[in-house]
Structure formats: structure tokens, C-alpha cells
Specification:
With about 260 residues, the protein is α/β, with parallel strands linked by helices. Helices cover about 35% and strands about 20% of the residues. It has a six-stranded mixed beta sheet with strand order 1-9-2-8-3-6. Strands 5-4-7 form a three-stranded mixed beta sheet, with helices on one face.
């Protein structure tokens, strides 16, 4: 594929869940909104896998559940990646026969390496990561496999003559568990730099945020109930509708430590 200056564009962004029930709502008998979320994810995947000029060449994924450094964000620099999501683990039921959903993705390693170099030069907490001397695939798990599956394995992807999009994956540091609020200024600065770089590329890029919202909606769940869960999710929804930054950095931020979201950072 030859790219022209007219192609250069960050074509869109999508926040996509990585939980079992969003991918396989049958695990909970299609209840509790799981089927609605699943259909929305499938529709989103279809929106960005049409055989037209809006279809991305690259999918940039940020994941909270990838390989994690204590301090730095990591950009995967292998040529290929592969792995699985273990479906059924979110049931927290040891008697359920869990099963794997597999995914392989070619990586756009040159973009990863260049982006890591640019961000490091700006003194941001980012490193490139190569696994196994690039002699094997970079391992993926549910935080990458489930969101990417809605795009790379969407039925509309099959008839296309163009190869599927390549992936660029950035993982979050483990300090996000204890420093999420302190990281907000850093995240804003990092996001601005990443967005500017992706928008300058000759390839069309789709930015996918792997994220689950509040984990504390039900007392019977593994994380218990919190009154913060619903207003946290509402604040995130308000941001998606208005792009008002303060709905995330102020309203949602005030609730996130009780709502327990693996997607705020």
C-alpha cells in the first residue's frame, strides 16, 4: 500500500471493554446489559473495518493489562504478537470450564520504535520493549486480545483484499494502581504528544483504548458494591458525549478510587 499526504489522519478513537461478558455475553445468559455492550462493540468493529478510505492501516491500543513496568509506559517493539483471552475467568467460578479465544496481530514495530524515541526525548516516562530478541511473538492477553478481536476478526475484515491493520500497543505502568490521580497531568501531556505523532503519520490510525469502567456495581461481585460506581460511569459517558475534559479529570477522578476502574489510566 502506498500512502499519500491526503491519507495522513488519526481517523478515530474508540473505548472498548476487555471483560469476558462484552466479548461473550452468553457467559451470563446475555443478561445485565452484556448483550447491548457486545453488540455495540461489534458495531464499532464494523464501523472501522469497512473497505473504504476510513478503514485504518494501524490500530494503536493502550492497555491496562499488558506487560507492565513499575514506572514507565511500554511500547511493544516486536514484529508479531499473539496470545489469548481466557473466557470465563470473570465469572470467578472455579467449576466453570474456561476456554481460550486466540488472536494474532502483526505489529507496526517501526512506529513503536519511533514513538518511543520521540517520547523519551521529551523526558516522558516511556520505554520501548522487545521480547525474546524479536525471535518470537510478543505475548498478548485479555486486555489486548478482546478489544483487538472486534476489529481484526470482524466478519467484514475477511473479504477485504488489503491486509488487516497492524497493531501498535502501549501498556500502562503498574503504578497506575496507587497513583492514578497523581498521573493525570502526565497522562494529559503524554496523550497530547502521542496524538500529535499519530496524526502526522502517512498511515490512517485508529486509537483504541482498552478499558472497563466501574467494577463495583453489585455487592455479589468480586469487588463489592460502591455508590461511586454509577456516577463514575455516568461521568465517563458524559465525557464521551461532550469531550469536556473536566468530566474525567475532576468528576470521574473524584470517584475512581471507589468505583475501581481498569481504564481510567
Amino acid at each position: 500500500h502506498k500512502y499519500s499526504a491526503a491519507d495522513a489522519l488519526l481517523v478515530g478513537t474508540a473505548v472498548v471493554p476487555h471483560g469476558d461478558f462484552a466479548f461473550a455475553p452468553s457467559l451470563v445468559d446475555d443478561k445485565n446489559g452484556s448483550l447491548v455492550v457486545h453488540k455495540a462493540c461489534v458495531d464499532t468493529g464494523g464501523r472501522w473495518t469497512r473497505d473504504d478510505l476510513s478503514s485504518p492501516d494501524v490500530i494503536f491500543v493502550t492497555t491496562p493489562h499488558g506487560l507492565a513496568d513499575d514506572r514507565n509506559f511500554l511500547l511493544y517493539e516486536n514484529t508479531n504478537s499473539s496470545g489469548y483471552a481466557l473466557l470465563g475467568q470473570d465469572l470467578h467460578n472455579s467449576s466453570f470450564p474456561m476456554y481460550k479465544h486466540n488472536l494474532s496481530a502483526a505489529m507496526e514495530k517501526n512506529i513503536s520504535m519511533k514513538l518511543a524515541s520521540i517520547l523519551e526525548a521529551k523526558n516522558l516516562n516511556v520505554s520501548g520493549l522487545t521480547g525474546f530478541g524479536d525471535g518470537d511473538d510478543m505475548p498478548l492477553r485479555w486486555g489486548e486480545v478482546i478489544p483487538l478481536s472486534f476489529f481484526l476478526q470482524h466478519p467484514k475484515q475477511q473479504p477485504k483484499q488489503q491486509p488487516p491493520p497492524k497493531a501498535v500497543i502501549m501498556s500502562m505502568p503498574s503504578r497506575r494502581y496507587t497513583q492514578d490521580l497523581q498521573m493525570i497531568p502526565e497522562l494529559l501531556a503524554l496523550g497530547a504528544e502521542v496524538g500529535a505523532y499519530l496524526d502526522s503519520l502517512p498511515q490512517r490510525v485508529l486509537w483504541v483504548v482498552s478499558a472497563d469502567l466501574a467494577h463495583t456495581h453489585e455487592a455479589s461481585g468480586p469487588y463489592g458494591f460502591s455508590k461511586a460506581a454509577e456516577p463514575f460511569d455516568q461521568a465517563c459517558g458524559e465525557w464521551a458525549q461532550t469531550f469536556d475534559r473536566q468530566t474525567l479529570t475532576v468528576k470521574a477522578a473524584a470517584l475512581v478510587d471507589k468505583a475501581l476502574s481498569c481504564g481510567f489510566v
